[in-house]
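sry for the spam today, last one i promise. struct tokens for design, 314 residues
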């Protein structure tokens, strides 16, 4: 079934993508104290602080008062994923999808996809990403559809499936090429992302020479794009490729230049130090990973890894 959907999808133009996660919408007005919405907001603050059990207690109070409250089911599912209670998380995301307002349906579907990414179940994640993908295509939202291309591609890649990752990254790039009003700077930005993806895929396949060729092409495109916001992704790229091609010293040096708030970068640093024989530094980075309480594809792979490395079940 999934294969048929993917094959049909390749016949449609797609756009590119960014790595993103389901984000809680900011309320227009502060909720009444003690109301279900207020309890959810309090719980979200606790969850961001890593106080997951306390957050869950508030979400459950909110659901006792309002059993169909979308925000409570969504937030509880996210907290349960962070704790590693994936089956129960799926139940809450299923309910969130059922009761979601129309403008929040995609958020709930993507949250369920990330939930399956926490289990490295990329094919189940794809079932939910594809629903968002198809809905956006139906609305001629090529940019939005493209975000799903890269989001799903990254899930496949980090789950160890570079072949499906390649197909979805390619869909994103091909869509960008079909956008009629794409500026030269944007064309180079999309090219940078596509070459970036191909470099990481080649590294995961053990093709060091090919990965370096794509790194060079990515750097050339990045320079032409003249987009300082994208520059931070370059050391992540070079560090990622170095790690997966066995050059741990370079991996550490490059990844330390990358975003130190990204849990997947921190996890890669932990693994690089571990493979270099520095257990203390590895442990320190794995502990840093667990300080991240985001519900997104990066944390979906970094957090379970860090828990396993530290022998932590919570």
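last one done:
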């Amino acid at each position: 079934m999934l294969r048929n959907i993917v094959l049909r999808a390749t016949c449609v133009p797609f756009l590119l993508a960014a790595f993103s996660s389901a984000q809680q919408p900011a309320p227009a007005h502060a909720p009444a104290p003690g109301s279900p919405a207020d309890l959810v907001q309090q719980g979200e603050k606790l969850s961001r602080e890593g106080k997951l059990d306390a957050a869950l207690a508030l979400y459950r109070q909110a659901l006792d008062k309002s059993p169909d409250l979308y925000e409570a089911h969504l937030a509880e599912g996210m907290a349960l994923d962070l704790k590693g209670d994936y089956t129960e998380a799926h139940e809450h995301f299923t309910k969130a999808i059922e009761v979601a307002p129309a403008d929040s349906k995609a958020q709930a579907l993507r949250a369920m996809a990330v939930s399956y990414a926490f289990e490295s179940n990329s094919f189940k994640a794809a079932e939910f990403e594809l629903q968002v993908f198809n809905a956006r295509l139906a609305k001629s939202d090529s940019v939005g559809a493209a975000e799903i291309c890269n989001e799903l591609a990254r899930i496949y890649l980090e789950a160890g499936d570079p072949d499906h990752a390649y197909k979805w990254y390619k869909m994103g790039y091909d869509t960008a090429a079909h956008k009629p009003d794409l500026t030269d700077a944007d064309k180079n930005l999309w090219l940078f992302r596509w070459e970036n993806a191909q470099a990481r895929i080649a590294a995961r396949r053990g093709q060091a020479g090919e990965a370096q060729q794509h790194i060079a092409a990515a750097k050339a495109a990045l320079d032409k794009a003249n987009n300082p916001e994208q520059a931070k992704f370059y050391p992540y790229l070079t560090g990622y490729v170095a790690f997966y091609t066995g050059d741990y010293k370079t991996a550490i040096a490059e990844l330390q230049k990358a975003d130190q708030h990204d849990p997947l970068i921190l996890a890669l640093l932990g693994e690089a130090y571990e493979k270099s024989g520095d257990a203390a530094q590895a442990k320190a980075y794995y502990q840093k990973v667990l300080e991240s309480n985001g519900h997104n594809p990066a944390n979906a792979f970094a957090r379970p890894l860090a828990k396993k490395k530290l022998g932590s079940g919570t």
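Residues 116 and 124 are 6 Å apart (CA to CA). ok im logging off now
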